[in-house]
Amino acid sequence: MRANSVSGDQITLGVTLILTNEEHRFLALDQLRELSNIKSRILLEPLGKNTAPALTLAALFAKDQACDPILLVTPADQAIVNVAALSEALRESIAVAQSGSIAILGIQPDSAQTGYGYVQSRPSRYPDEQDDVERFVEKPDAKTAQLYLEQGNYLWNSGMFVLKASVWLSALGFFRPDILSTTEKAWQNCHQDGAGDTLFIRPEKESFADIPAESIDYAVIEKCPGTQFPIKMIKLDAGWSDLGAWDAVWKIGKADANGNVSTGDVLLNNVHNSLVHSSSRLVGVVGVQDLVIVETADAILVADRSSSQNVKNIVAQLDQKSREEKNLHRKVFRPWGWYDSVDEGEHFKVKRIQVKSGASLSLQMHHHRAEHWIVVKGVAKIHNGDQILILRENQSTYIPQGQKHRLSNPGLDPLEIIEVQSGSYLGEDDIVRFDDVYGRQ
């Protein structure tokens, strides 16, 4: 959203398009509600296909909204300290894109990093033009990274691009027509629904599954140098950091006298240069250095800080073992609030549920489970079969298996209940919805 600072000076901002996975839609929605003056749409991918199809969807959406708009493409997991410097670089990039070229924002290295991709630049043949991009190189080893740092014309690839929608679609059609054609098919069959004032745009799932998975860089950008798709380098000096690894989070954090960055309920003794993050319980750390320790309700990560980028190897092992932790979290966000799965065992599950003021769950029933609801905070309006109940703190109701029911919050404060499920099957897919204000099926 910091990119909105470029508005003005003959630059008119269009809608902000957030691309995310279907499962993250309500978390994104909650974060958007914390921002003001942002005109946005949320484009939901039914499954991950990497960034090239995502940008293609954005370009198709943008062309439907305007003649041939300029796209600012930026990852969400980056830190920018100097927003004014970013705005200046983006204005320069927009001018480059207006001429038909692709602009990439490159970061001047201040150290020999092996965790970033690099971009080699060379001076343009034409006066007063930005440097041309010579080539893209993969994450180097330490010796090569030091050489890049000394040469001075290798910049970190920030992953931020500025280009016309038509330029992206033309380049994709030239380099990867298979991605373009399959994405266009999914887009043509998309449908829309919403939650409150926010519009969800959903590509057609069956067609989307046929799209080849590929990144923006591999599909198009790295192939552009020396072709009919000119690509220019815009240098960015704005205190940039890629937060794709925990080591980067440590670097931008506020450190104590021993170089430790900690958040949450943390106690440290004889600890140095470490990142310790606690989200749900006390974490005590004694006599270590250069570690990353991250505690969540789902799992705990302990890693050497220099190896924090290798967390992806653990994710790969979760896939190999068909573990659910990669995709399913204890705390799940919904348009009406959230639920936290506190405990479960054979034939039972306990949830803590929070419902926002004025919000309502769907009218639903379950084939395989019954539910007990106990109000612990606020006021609940409950449809339980033919009954309509108003319950307050310490009051409860029982919902038999197969009975239609609905939970709403008529009050001004958040409603919290404890839900105890019991039955032969307690999966989240055992929901039959009859009515839903958020358009869910």
Number of domains: 3
Based on CA inertia axes, which overall geometry fits? globular
- Kindly provide the name of the CATH class of the largest domain: Alpha Beta
Helix coverage percent: 10-25%
Uncertain parts: none
Secondary structure topology:
Layout: E1 16-21, H1 25-33, E2 40-45, H2 51-65, E3 70-73, E4 78-80, H3 83-98, E5 102-107, E6 118-122, E7 132-137, H4 142-151, E8 154-164, H5 165-175, H6 177-188, E9 191-195, E10 198-202, H7 205-208, H8 216-219, E11 231-236, E12 240-242, H9 246-252, E13 261-263, E14 266-269, E15 275-278, E16 283-286, E17 291-295, E18 300-304, H10 311-320, E19 331-334, E20 337-345, E21 348-355, E22 363-365, E23 369-377, E24 380-384, E25 387-391, E26 396-399, E27 405-408, E28 415-423, E29 432-435
What do you see in this structure?
By secondary structure, the chain is α+β, with helices and mostly antiparallel strands. It has 3 domains: 2-103 and 157-235, Alpha-Beta Complex (Spore Coat Polysaccharide Biosynthesis Protein SpsA, Chain A); 246-317, no CATH class; 331-435, Jelly Rolls (Sandwich), CATH 2.60.120.10. Helix content is 22%, strand content 35%. It contains 10 helices and 29 strands. The chain has helices at 25-33, 51-65, 83-98, 142-151, 165-175, 177-188, 205-208, 216-219, 246-252, 311-320; strands spanning 16-21, 40-45, 70-73, 78-80, 102-107, 118-122, 132-137, 154-164, 191-195, 198-202, 231-236, 240-242, 261-263, 266-269, 275-278, 283-286, 291-295, 300-304, 331-334, 337-345, 348-355, 363-365, 369-377, 380-384, 387-391, 396-399, 405-408, 415-423, 432-435. The strands form 8 sheets. Strands 3, 5, 6, 7, 8 and 11 form a 6-stranded mixed sheet that branches. A 6-stranded antiparallel sheet has the order 19-20-21-28-23-26. The protein is globular, with a radius of gyration of 25 Å. The mean pLDDT is 89.
